[in-house]
Design brief:
This protein is of the alpha+beta class. The strands form eleven sheets. It has a five-stranded mixed barrel with strand order 3-4-5-7-6. It is about 30% helix and about 25% strand.
């Protein structure tokens, strides 16, 4: 009996009906031919073969199956047995995801999980292409195993060099790659012990460790900057600007007032984090003097005029497109634009003339956007303020900088914000209250604190102003029938809705069956769960059901914000999408040079796909760095007992998020109490097959820290053998199954661990 028939069970020898054959085809992991079907159902003879042939024709005519290569059949829109895939990154549970390079079906292709690479092979990163063998789990989920890489480049590994008797070793920094590499003396390239290196894999030999040649030395791992350096090189972030781009940036200058609106008399202010390095948006508000809009407000959102300095197809433009966005680490920024622009001419520094594109926004007393107008101007920021300063001033404790601005600038900003916030509440956006970590470094670059990121009304104020400007930008492009890039966020797919609905029903919540869900449906559930022990669980599960936001010239609206149209306009220093929107507005309204060119208009789909990929790459790199900084922070507390919650459930283990610092780590399934555990995807749980013991998403747990490796970012936990084994923060008993003599199973399981996700809010989303 074939593998297919074993998976599908055994069948009697009588001829099956159409539904039975269709069920067999749907349950098969790969497309099947007549031979596999006949063998599974024990069919023989020419009569049976002819009946089966006619039955398959009927199924195909009904649209129940599709015929592919070698006349093999599968459910409609199924993926082939072998396909070229592009790696898209890692999902919320740390598994490597991919998508088919060619997809002709309707909607988005099925989800694809890429299985861990073979021993000695580098793991795949976003953008890598592979030829892979696919296995269908269900209509919307596949597993894939790499056959070979297709990028044509020599595999590279980032690791740490250590000397050895036969030359040296490279220990990979990727937590999923546990295979050391041999470096012969001739291939050392003068690497020193403990140095971070990039190494080229050499052709595999039949015996011994795989070999590598040191290609680039990146500095010693003891240096504080090594953590973010690892993240940068692991994810292939471009760091060096071409000389031509640097020359263009160095020759830039503030433009004259010709063709611009003079905004320098308006007391625009920037409001950013205390550690912000660039200031690309400034705000101002006043009560609308128009008597027809009583109780309404006039807002001004001024954004750095990056399009004036970065012209289409110039060296600066090509470099910015390659990066797609800036990437932020606790100790550095990898900017989209050179510092001569990002930290100078395009940074709205106080009391200096700066070119801007400004949105005049008029809202009514209910916070609805009545009208808008975009101008190209010259502005002069009245002050550089922080969120904490502005909030303190609003709360009655102004300082030297905010006291003169309290009544004339800050109070009107809060007045307009109150209207926008009320409109948001009525609109019903998706509000997931999920923790965010903030890593604070000391003067030596070492982790001083990891704490929840504070969320103030001043943060919400800026976010609402930016959202309003983004809506105006999208509306302006649609009214002008000007192509552009929209920030789109689709509602959850039907299969995710159904999975979520079943899970919520099991814990006493109801997700209605309606033609189109709205964020309000989710918010109602979140509100009912608020303050209960399952609040975190409900938030996590709803988060996992959501589609991923992306950039597209086709506007489908933004589900999470409950908006019909939305485009990123407010951060062109750090997001290429915003630069495209600026260029489109400039062309649509005849605002001067630097508008969207014809080539870009024709290629917006490709541009949107590229910068959606670079956004995912940046988010993954930022999470990687946070994981490594967190591991460094915890490294001296191995053996300590912590409290936390299960933040992710996968086939290979449980992700845990600690209560006191938000650190994430893995409990490998192989270390759970003695049993065989199966992953119940719908219940978000690992369930013991003999004991019935269940570990479910959101459950509170006590864990022991087993490993915290700053180089790999690997943080491993284990369940305590028994709570009484612990006294304070120390593990009691030398025979604990997770002590040094038992670590190998943990390390093997950790290969399958990706990075636990931390959803980060961004301005204007």
């Amino acid at each position: 009996m074939t593998d297919i028939s074993r998976r599908s069970g055994s069948f009697p020898g009588s001829f099956p009906d159409k539904d039975t054959v269709l069920s067999f085809i749907r349950n098969s992991a790969t497309p099947v031919g007549k031979r596999e079907i006949a063998r599974a159902f024990k069919l023989s003879g020419s009569d049976d073969r002819e009946r089966l042939k006619e039955l398959l024709k009927e199924l195909e005519a009904d649209g129940a199956v599709e015929r592919g290569r070698n006349k093999r059949v599968a459910p409609p829109q199924s993926l082939p047995e072998v396909a070229v895939l592009e790696v898209t990154g890692t999902d919320a549970d740390g598994e490597v995801t991919a998508r088919p390079v060619t997809w002709t079906g309707e909607g988005n292709p099925p989800r694809i999980f890429l299985m861990p690479e073979r021993k000695g092979h580098p793991t795949m990163g976003a953008g890598d292409r592979v030829l892979a063998k696919l296995s269908r789990v269900n209509d919307r989920l596949y597993e894939a195993r790499t056959i070979r890489r297709l990028d044509g480049t020599v595999g590279r590994v980032l690791g740490v060099y250590y000397p050895a008797a036969d030359g040296g070793r490279i220990v990979p920094t990727d937590k999923r790659n546990k295979t050391e590499l041999l470096v012969l003396p001739a291939n050392r390239n003068d690497a020193e012990p403990g140095e971070l290196v990039l190494a080229d894999l050499l052709p595999a030999s039949r015996m011994g460790l795989p070999q590598a040649r040191v290609a680039e030395r990146l500095g010693h791992t003891a240096e504080p900057r090594a953590v973010s350096l690892i993240a940068i090189h692991t994810h292939g972030l471009p760091t060096d600007f071409p000389p031509a781009a640097l020359r263009e940036a160095s020759h830039a200058a503030v433009p004259s007032l010709t063709g611009r609106t003079d905004l320098r008399d308006l007391p625009l202010v920037t409001i950013d984090g205390a550690d912000a390095r660039d200031f690309d948006d400034a705000v101002w508000a006043e009560p609308d003097p128009d008597p027809a809009n009583e109780g309404g407000w006039h807002l001004l959102v001024a954004i750095a005029d990056v399009a004036f300095y970065v012209r289409p197809n110039a060296a600066l433009d090509r470099a910015a497109f390659e990066r797609g966005n800036s990437v932020y680490f606790p100790d550095r920024v990898v900017p989209m634009l050179p510092e001569a622009l990002s930290n100078d001419l395009c940074s709205l520094r106080p009391h200096e003339d700066r070119a801007c594109v400004a949105a005049h926004l008029w809202i009514d007393r209910h916070g609805a956007l009545l009208r808008h107008r975009f101008v190209r101007g010259l502005m002069r920021s009245a002050a550089r303020l922080t969120y904490e300063q502005v909030q303190a001033a609003r709360d009655g404790a102004p300082d030297e900088a905010t006291a003169p601005l309290l009544e004339t600038v800050i109070a009107p900003l809060y007045g307009a914000y109150a209207r926008l916030w009320a409109a948001r509440q009525r609109r019903g956006t998706l509000e997931l209250d999920l923790p965010e970590r903030r890593v604070r470094l000391d003067e030596r670059g070492r982790v001083a604190e990891i704490a929840p990121r504070e969320r103030l009304d001043s943060h919400r104020l800026i976010e609402e102003f930016m959202i309003c400007a983004n809506v105006a930008a999208a509306d302006s492009l649609e009214r002008a029938t000007m192509p552009g890039l929209f920030r789109v966020h689709d509602q959850p797919s039907l299969d995710k809705q159904e999975t979520l609905r079943e899970f919520l029903t099991g814990i006493g919540h109801t997700l209605p069956r309606v033609p189109r869900l709205s964020p309000a449906h989710f918010t109602a559930i979140l509100d009912r769960a608020a303050g209960t022990t399952e609040s975190q669980l409900v938030s996590e599960v709803i988060l996992r059901s959501q589609s991923q936001a992306e950039y597209s010239p086709e506007n489908i609206g933004h589900f999470g914000l409950s908006l019909d149209r939305y485009a990123h306009f407010t951060s062109p220093i750090r997001r290429y999408a915003d630069l495209i929107v600026h260029r489109a507005l400039i062309r649509a309204h005849g605002l001067g040079p630097g508008g969207l060119d014809d080539a870009a208009m024709a290629g917006l789909t490709d541009i949107g796909e590229h910068i959606s990929m670079t956004e995912r790459r940046a988010a993954t790199a930022e999470r990687d760095a946070i994981d490594r900084f967190t591991a460094a922070f915890l490294a001296d507390r191995v053996g300590a007992l912590f409290t936390g919650r299960i933040s992710g459930v996968t086939r290979f283990g449980l992700f845990i998020r600690l209560d006191d610092n938000g650190a994430d780590g893995l409990i490998p399934a192989s270390t759970l109490p003695d049993d065989q555990y199966e992953h119940d995807e719908r219940a978000h749980a690992l369930v013991g097959q003999r004991s019935g013991r269940s570990y479910r998403l959101g459950a509170a747990v006590k864990v022991v820290l087993v490993e915290a490796d700053p180089l790999t970012g690997s943080t491993l936990f284990a369940l305590p053998r028994a709570e009484e084994d612990f006294s304070g923060d120390s593990v009691g008993g030398t025979d604990h199954p997770l002590q040094s003599g038992h670590r190998d199973p943990l390390r093997r399981s950790a290969r399958f661990a990706g990075r636990a996700t931390q959803k980060q809010r961004e301005r204007g989303r």
